[in-house]
Design a protein that fits this description.
- It contains 4 helices and 7 strands.
- By secondary structure, it is an alpha+beta fold.
Length: about 160
Amino acid sequence: MKPHNEIHLVTLTPGELDEAYQLYRESLYEFIDQAFGWNEAFQQQRFWSSYPIDSLLWITHVNSSRIGLVSFLNKDQSLHLSLLLLYRAHRGSGLGSLVMRELEGLAEGSGRKITLSTFRENKGAFVFYQKLGYQIDNQDEHFYEMSRELTCRQRIN
């Protein structure tokens, strides 16, 4: 599937939190279970407390169909990507790169870098971020912390 070059970030409504949690579970169960063991009640509570509804955005395609979920925090020196999840049917389609370009544009406009972390066992995500130019800043038993410095593009008048 070739991606259309336009995506939108749309705020969740309270009635959509269950769908967002199901995508979180589908996307991260394997990696969380390997690293820490999956406890459903704990993961639900962690999701609700770590990702307040005002920090969650649906990633929609030009036709308004949902392709995934993103959450990021604006920090002093960086835009921190907390969560980037795509529905399985959209993985590997180039849409994740479009989302990252959108976020990079937000960070670049304010002179910040992008930071993120990914499970070491999530090889697909790790390779994806490396291909986009993200470097490992730190690592532990379970995670890579990565970042990418952004340079402001000169505007052409």
